[in-house]
Please model this.
Amino acid sequence: MNVLCVDVGNTRTHIGVVREGHVLWEVAVPTPQVTDPKAGLARYLEELKNGPYAPEGIAFCSVVPKATALVQPLLLGTGWPLFHLTWDRCASLGLPIEYPRPEQIGQDRLALALGVLAYYGTPAVAIDLGTAVTFDVINRQGAYMGGVIAPGLTMLTRSLHEQTALLPELDPGDLQVSVNIGSSTIEAMKIGCATGFGGMIRAILDRVLGELRLRGEGAVRIVVTGGNAGQLPQDWAKEIEFDPHLLLRGLEEAWRRNERQRAKG
Model:
């Protein structure tokens, strides 16, 4: 079954058709433009209806309440069955939540946790390098424990520009330099952002792994996703697994688990 997976994020809305864990088609649109009839979600819904990747259902999550109110009617209007991933559905999907205020967990983080459960096993840490950086921890029993939230690379580069009078705005995707001491303002900023970003991720991850060791969780899988994963040091490749589609795959997994529950009555 082809499942249309829609993830409404703070900056971008990811749309993909997923079948048994394989992303067949995907696109991203800026979230502020998601309801634009020519460039937003409606355009792609219309294209999908008669295309080779026509879906039979929709799995949906959002971290932008205003956009949710606009996107959900568009999805319902397709006539395809819609599943909205929310915290209160997780226990029935096989993802118990050990968190005092589960309603505060972003729906995208729940999708990531389900993707990890389905494809990587536990215990695990999912790191999403998006607008914000999130670390989500799933223990060896398969329960969502909690995590960490930190500023993403775009936030770091933008804040340098917006909070100063003379520093320019950097492109977060173009921070590679071959030296460690900058000989220009741009070079100095690139070194600071790239090195600082990787150092932040490393420091947080080390503390998370240290606590999991103290809890006796055993060997931990580390799965990284998100558009800024390329900014991590290359020597990390041996200890992490990169899955660019973890969130979309997690949404499809949520759909499948919900359908199994419905079939049981």
User: Anything to note?
Assistant: DSSP finds six helices and ten strands in the chain.
